[in-house]
Each structure stands twice: as structure tokens, then as C-alpha cells.
Amino acid sequence: MNIIQSLLQVFRSRKMAALLFVGFSSSLPFLLTSKTLQAWMTLEKVDLSAIGLFSLVGVPYSLKFLWSPLIDRFALPFLGRRRGWLIAIQVGLLLAIACMSLQQPKQALQLLAINALAIAFFSATQDIVADAYRTDVLEQMEMGAGAAIFVLGYRGAMLVTGALALILADRIPWSLVYLIMAGCMVVGILATLFAPEPKSVNPPASLIEAVVLPFGDFFQRRGVVQAFLVLGFIVLYKLGDALVNNMSTPFLLQIGFTQTDIGAIQGGMGLIATIVGAFAGGAFLSKIGLNLSLWLFGALQALSNLTYLVLANLGKNYQFLVLTINIENLCAGLGTAAFVAF
Fold it and tell me: pLDDT by residue (tens digit) across 98-128?
């Protein structure tokens, strides 16, 4: 009984409430520059090759390690070392997402790309600071609970931007949808204002300590060849899934499914399937080991994408759409479990 009360006390704390909503804020911009934006562009009759190229606006998420040491080294003169950066970035995101409501995808594609890239940059930077805040604010015994709460908020925002946004877009203009999504950033801003300040941690003393030493340590421990092999593996392991996911929303719209269909099935059921896959992957991983899991789940990840080929031949088939989304997301969840463990 005392153990249960202790666990409940952990989840009731102010820092856990803050992490829930910071996690929500951290996830909110992600789909607004990928699948949700692709749906808007498809309905505006933007060329498919241009929609495919828009996946490049996600590059900041892959390159955020380049400027994360700068965020770690310097602090803004308000709200502390982590919360100061968080609040500044969240306000920037609110304004950048609101600006999307002014865009015309068909008439001014370059302006849309610049706007989306700005959102992706702010979002990737928010991820850096949110992860650092979570690390600093949690005690060792709270790490597991804190990560779970953060992910819960993260997944909740994906329901809002991946399901609710598409359902709303069938009923109101896309410009208004993006204004509503911008308003949702207020959740993260309020959470940051009321979040507890982490214990003071000394920042790196110089840029060399912040930037050079971490990379040097990684290559020294691994060796140059193995270090590059590890980095190559990280880049390539989920590349196939990324390429398919990038065009799945335009594909589903073009074969006749509505935004509400895609929002409810892909954004709703697909998210649940991903979570189930991640939990199942974690359970299997503990039984069969990391190496076999990476091979097995990686193969399932690749094979699951063939369901889209079958759907392309069947056309607008709701039953097979449900099956396709569930299989693809379940296997993606399995692969993610092994990948994150690696």
C-alpha cells in the first residue's frame, strides 16, 4: 500500500504536471509541418513532387545536435537556464504557426516553405530544451515516471494535430485550423511559466567544452570506423518508413478518402497501434535480445509498407485502410522500441 501511495505521489507532483504539458507543447508543431501540412497542400492541388520535397523542412530535427551545445552553453536573462529558452521558443512557435494561416500553398509555395522551415527549427530547438529540462528537474527515482508523463503529453498533441486538425479541416478553412493549433501552444507557455525551476547545474565553461569534447569522447570510445558505422545505422534504420510516411497522406486523399477518414483512422487508430507496438516491442526485446530485435523488427517495418501497394490496387476500401494503418503503425512501434533501445 505504501508503495502505491509513493507512486501516486510522484505522479501528482508539480513537476510531473509541467512535464505533461511541456511534452504536449514539444509534439504540437511536428505534424503541422509534415502530414497535416501535406493534407492541406494536396487539397490545394500542389504538385506531388513539391509535396515530397517538403519533407526537407524536417531537416532541423536531424541536425539539432549541431546547435544543442550552444543552447546548453548560453542562458537567456529570465526564468532560469532552461525555462528561459523554453518560453522564448514557445512564443516563437505560436507566432510561426499563426503565420501559417496567412499562407496560400498554391500561389506562394516558397513563402510556405520558409514558414514551415521556421516552425521546424523552433520545434527542434524546443525538443533540445525540453529534454534538458526533464533531465535537470527529475531526481533519479523519478526518471521513469517523468519520461512516461512526457510521452503521454507528446502523444496527446499528436492526436490533436494528426486527428483533430484533419477532422476540423473538413468543416472549417485550413487557415482557421492553423490559428486554432497556434492557440494550443498557450498550453506549453503556461506550463513553462508555472513549472518548477531545476536545481542549478553549471553550464559548460567554454564552447570547446560544449561542442568539441562530447564529439571527441564519442569517437574516442567507439573508434572512428565503428562511430561512423553507428551513425550510418541510425540514419538509415527508419529511412524506408520515413519515405513512405512522407507521402501516405497525399496518397490516401488521392484515392478518395476524406480528411476525416484519415484523421480518425491514421491519426487516431494509427497512434494507438504505434503505442501497442512500442510496448510489445519492449516486451519481446527483453526476451530475444537487442540484436535479433533490430533485425526482426526492421524486416517487419519494411514488409508492412507493402500493405500500401495492396491498398493502391484495391482503391477506396475502408476495411483494408484500417488494416493497412494498423499493420504499418504496429510494426513501426516495434521498430521504434528496438531503435530507441539501441
Answer: 999 888 888 888 898 899 999 999 999 998 8
Q: How many domains does the chain have?
A: 2
Secondary structure class of 181 (helix, strand, coil): helix
Q: Please indicate, yes or no, if residue 68 is contained in any of the structural domains.
A: yes
* Alpha carbons 334 and 298: distance in angstroms, whole number: 8
Last residue of a domain, one of 152, 183, 203: 203
Cell triple for residue 22? 511541456
Q: Are 124 and 68 in contact (CB under 8 A)?
A: no
For residue 24, CA distances in Å to 54, 152, 197, 256, 295 come to 24, 8, 19, 31, 32
**Tell me, what amino acid is at 250?**
P
The secondary structure of 41-54 as a DSSP string is HHHTT--HHHHHHG
Rounded Cα–Cα distance for residues 45 and 48 (Å)? 8
Q: Say how many C-beta atoms besides its own lie within 10 A of residue 256's C-beta.
A: 10
Of 102, 153, 96, nearest in space to 123 by CA: 96
Backbone dihedral region for residue 257 (phi beyond 0: left; psi -120 to 50: alpha; all else: beta): beta
Scanning the structure block, which residue is given the C-alpha cell 511541456? Answer: 22
Q: Is 178 a residue whose pLDDT tops 90? A: yes
Confirm whether 307 is domain-assigned. yes
Take residue 306 and report the three cell numbers written for it.
Answer: 507493402
One domain, residues 251 and 123 = no
Phi/psi class of residue 76: alpha, beta or left (left: φ > 0; alpha: ψ in -120 to 50)?
A: beta
Note down the domain range covering 285. 237-342
Total residues belonging to the chain: 342
Cα separation, 153 vs 150, whole angstroms: 5
**How far, in whole angstroms, is CA 139 from its chain's centroid?**
25
Instruction: Kindly tell me if the per-residue pLDDT of 246 is higher than 80.
Output: no
Q: Which of 288, 289, 282, 287 is nearest to 335 (CA)?
A: 282
Instruction: Indicate whether 329 and 187 sit together in one domain.
Output: no
Q: What is the largest CA-CA distance in the chain?
A: 63
Q: Look at residues 203, 224, 259 and tell me which one is the last residue of a structural domain.
A: 203
Instruction: Write down the pLDDT at residue 87.
Output: 92
In a domain, 210, yes or no: no
